[in-house]
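quick one, 89 residues, struct below
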Amino acid sequence: MAKKISKKILRYTALFEPCEEGGFTVTVPKLPGVVTEADTFEEATDNIKEAIAGYISVLKEEGMDIPDPDGTSFITPVDVDFSKFRFAM
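---
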């Protein structure tokens, strides 16, 4: 019989803000104090995943409630090409 592998994934919204000097600062609005910085988006993504995991581990160790994940909602930039519209900006 094959062994069943399962994993639990929690999704939190992370806010990536570009820094003036380059790179990103990342926060998680639902997890106060979870902040990281990195030179690239990929590094920032890895860092925030580690920060979230560490935050949740501490909450579990302390017997505290884990904030509900954000579910399926997420934030993403949307580019709008105004040259296709008939009004001027």
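The mean pLDDT is 87.
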